[in-house]
Structure formats: C-alpha cells, structure tokens
C-alpha cells in the first residue's frame, strides 16, 4: 500500500498509541523506523521508501497483531526474517510470552502435517496441496470486517475478476441491494442508463479504472479531449461506483459482515471460516446471516467459532472447548440432552433449555 507505515499498520482502525508502539516493538520494526526520515509517518511503496521482503513480512505481521482478534491464522510469518529477528518475534509475538499469548494461533504450514488421518477438500488430501492451491478454497470472515477506502465495486472485487452482474447477484442473495442502491433512486438510474453521453463517460472511466499507471499517463496527456464536459460527470450514478467507506453511505457492523459474505459468495469458496463473525451484530442480522449460510453455502463446509449459541444451533456438529481443551463433540440435539454436559449447561444459562431444532 502506498501510504505511511502507520497507515499500513492501522489499516483504517482507531489509533491506540500505547498498543501501537507495543506492536512496533514486538514485530521488530523499531530500529527500521529510527533509520527513516519521518519515522512511522514515512511513506512506503512506489512513491516512498522501498522496503525489503523481511520488512514487508514484519509489517504484515504488525497489521495482523493490531487487529486484536481472538483467532489468528498465520501463514508462515517467519519465512522472510533472519534468525535474530525470528527469535525476537517468537518471544514477543507468537509464543506464550508474546502479545498473542491469550489468543488461538493457527500456523498455516501446520495444516499440512496432521499426525493421523487426513483432511480432505473436494475429496483431495490437503497435504498434497501447495499453499497457493489451498488459499483459494478457503474463505474467512473475522469478527470485524474491513472496508477499503474505495467504491463498492472495489471492495467487492479488488482484483477485477467479476462483472457488475456477478456483484449484483451476490448483493441480492445477501440482502444488500437496498444498501448499495437505495429504492428511492431507481428512476434516476433508469434515466441515466438511457443517456448516451453518460454511457460514454462510464465507458471512459471503466477503461481508466482498469488501466495501468503508464496507460493512465498516456490517457491523461493524449486523450483528455475525449473526456466529456465536467457537468456530464454529475449525472453518473452507477451505485457500485459510490464510495463504500468514507462516503455518504454508512454501513453498520452487521451490514459490513453481510458485505463480506458477498465477497466470498462470488468466489465460491468450498470452506468457510466464521471467526466470531456475528459477535458485534444484532440478533436480526445474525439470523439473516444464518439464513444466507443455509441457502447459499449449503454445499460448503462451514467452521463457526462463536459464543452466541443461536449462531451454531443449526450446525451438524459442535465442538465445545473449555480452557483450550476439547470437552465435548456431537450434534447439538444430542449434547443438549446430556444432563451434566458443558453444552447443556451453556444452553440453560442462556435460556436455551427448551430450544427446538
């Protein structure tokens, strides 16, 4: 990202000075900042300071640690650092003496090395997959979804892999159409769509969005006369081109989670991990997400980490973990029948004693 070091770590989250500098120290970035002209306010990337592979790895780790999640899935975080830095990060971040001491840490390379049995995706043993083959099959929705500073289209499809029709279908299935395209603006969009001048503006800006920086420079210098007058831009109202973050549309936490579901639905992930994805949403949004899961992801494997029992009552199997140890495994219906069971006690405590599945 072409921004300051601090912006790359915060990634849109609120700045907590004390915790931020703890993360900087733990991820062995303090010495790097001392050598840069503006410290953590130094711009990095194409228009700023070039950083090494090891610095990129530590920056990515710092951004991840700053999330303050409950579960961390780490893809070989020490692969690009030397032995001295590796020891520092192990001690101050990854081991039980570090910042993630009270968090569940899953290291991606370990997914390939089970002691017995096998893990299959689409009937294939993942021990035979490379990481590049495994990643596209798994989708993850964390407790707090991140919205990029860009349009709805940029947030749904940052790599420009899908059509606008694909995006609208996903938004409709996840009940998000009215957020992106408010009903009161329907007539306005129809009028604009029939306007030839507006279509030309849209076509030009679509080419601009897909162009490399070199092509954009060429377009700016030699094709400026092809652009329509500025007043024509005022009627451009393609909903997916509206700002999703920092614009006029303000999404709630629940809507952001549903938006994340849209992303994964478009990519047809075979395995979906929900990491406390409904912890910060209201009950109605939770039920809506569960409905989407049952209808649109019925042929997928869904792993749900949750404290809210409503979220997992329709699961095929529940694993109850107490103080880091598995204490019960079974169908929710069967676990509820155990008089002295841990799951049954949780259900009684949360007034689920008469819950009907």
From TrEMBL:
Protein name as catalogued: ABC transporter domain-containing protein
Single Gene Ontology MF annotation: ATP hydrolysis activity
GO annotation, cellular component aspect: membrane
Listed Pfam families: ABC_tran (PF00005)
Species per Swiss-Prot/TrEMBL record: Coemansia erecta
UniProt cross-references to InterPro entries, sorted A to Z: ABC_transporter-like_ATP-bd, ABC_transporter_C-like, P-loop_NTPase
Keyword ATP-binding: yes
Residues in ABC transporter domain copies: 62-348
Record-stated family: Belongs to the ABC transporter superfamily. ABCC family. Conjugate transporter (TC 3.A.1.208) subfamily.
Subcellular location per the Swiss-Prot or TrEMBL entry: Membrane
Keywords for this protein: ATP-binding, Nucleotide-binding
Topology class, membrane: Multi-pass membrane protein
């Amino acid at each position: 990202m072409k921004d300051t070091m601090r912006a790359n770590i915060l990634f849109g989250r609120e700045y907590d000075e004390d915790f931020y500098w703890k993360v900087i120290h733990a991820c062995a970035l303090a010495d790097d900042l001392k050598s840069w002209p503006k410290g953590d306010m130094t711009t990095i990337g194409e228009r700023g300071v070039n950083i090494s592979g090891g610095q990129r790895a530590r920056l990515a780790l710092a951004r991840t640690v700053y999330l303050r999640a409950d579960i961390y899935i780490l893809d070989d975080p020490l692969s690009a650092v030397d032995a001295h830095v590796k020891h520092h990060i192990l001690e101050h971040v990854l081991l039980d003496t570090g910042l993630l001491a009270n968090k569940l840490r899953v290291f991606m390379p370990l997914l390939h090395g089970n002691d017995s049995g096998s893990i299959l995706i689409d009937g294939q043993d993942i021990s035979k997959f490379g990481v590049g083959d495994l990643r596209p099959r798994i989708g993850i929705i964390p407790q707090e979804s991140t919205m990029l500073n860009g349009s709805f289209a940029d947030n749904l499809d940052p790599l420009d892999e899908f059509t606008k029709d694909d995006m609208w279908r996903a938004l409709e299935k996840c009940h998000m159409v009215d957020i992106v395209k408010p009903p009161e603006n329907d007539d306005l969009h129809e009028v604009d769509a029939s306007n030839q001048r507006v279509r030309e503006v849209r076509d030009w800006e679509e080419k601009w969005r897909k162009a490399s920086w070199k092509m954009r420079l060429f377009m700016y210098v030699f094709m400026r006369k092809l652009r329509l007058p500025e007043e024509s831009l005022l009627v451009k109202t393609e909903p997916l081109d509206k700002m999703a973050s920092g614009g006029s549309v303000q999404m709630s936490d629940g809507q952001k989670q549903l938006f994340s579901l849209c992303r994964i639905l478009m990519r047809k992930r075979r395995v979906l991990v929900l990491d406390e994805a409904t912890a910060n949403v209201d009950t109605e949004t939770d039920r809506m997400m569960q409905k989407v899961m049952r209808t649109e992801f019925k042929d997928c494997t869904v792993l749900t980490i949750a404290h809210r029992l409503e979220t997992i009552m329709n699961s095929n199997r529940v694993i109850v973990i107490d103080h880091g140890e598995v204490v019960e495994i079974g169908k929710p219906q069967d676990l509820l029948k155990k008089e002295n069971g841990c799951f049954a006690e949780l259900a009684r405590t949360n007034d689920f004693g008469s819950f009907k599945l």
